[in-house]
Amino acid sequence: MIEIGKYNDLEITAKTQDGYILSDGDRDILLPLNHAPKDVSIGDSLFVFVFLNKEGRLVATTQKPYACVGDFAYLKVIDENRDGAFMDLGIDKDVFVPNREQKRKMTKGESYVVYIYLDESTNRMLASSRLSAFVEEEDIELEEKEEVSLLITEATDLGYNAIINNKYIGLLYQNELFSYIHPGDVRKGWVKRFRVDGKIDLSLQPLGYEHILDLKGTLFEEIKNSNGVIPLGDKSSPDDIYKRFQISKGAFKKAIGALYKERKVVVSDYEVRLSDAEADTDS
What we know:
CATH 2.40.50.140; about 15% helix; single chain; five-stranded antiparallel beta sheet; alpha+beta; 4 helices; 4 domains
């Protein structure tokens, strides 16, 4: 069965003056000549994206869209009219966002995170910035401390919302961010906790004692490779720590604290250096 707004593996069954005819065995689709690979023959299989054109006809393309039906994506508005906005999908086909599907009025030239879906009455691809209507809220297949992929969606009073693994939505707290993030950014993140209200808290830092053990070894090697001292300590700013190691100050202090307990380093307000014993071993 051919899926509109998605990739399909179809067979070339004929060639016309307009292009190649592709089929899944039940339905035929035109692949225009200017979108066809060179040196293809009848009987070959092609992996193509399928959509409805303005005339309501099924068309295939080898162009690669920024997103398919079922995806969340950060897209740019390239035109608008009284009924809605048109967003660039990266192919010779825009995706329309009706006014009713705009969480806030969209403006030409601006970009927004939207969800791509198939309109059941017309079989046309549409988009919506009302993301909460499309995320899964039950039977969440995630665990605390699990590594996930995040698409940053928008700023809130508390921080930033993010789409998790193209399925769920969660929150990154502003006071736990140690680098600038923007809507549309794709980041690696971790599930911090599941709240009693069903919401998901997120982190851009790995969580758990295993991470501290890994971080401890990394920091120890960095100190040794920096002539036994780094200019960061207990009172260093979170920004300075993040610039060098891309970790939070809390994670830095835990790892350095573990090294201190093992008597491998000496810690001061703005410096961490190898202990005398470690310095002698390293020399």
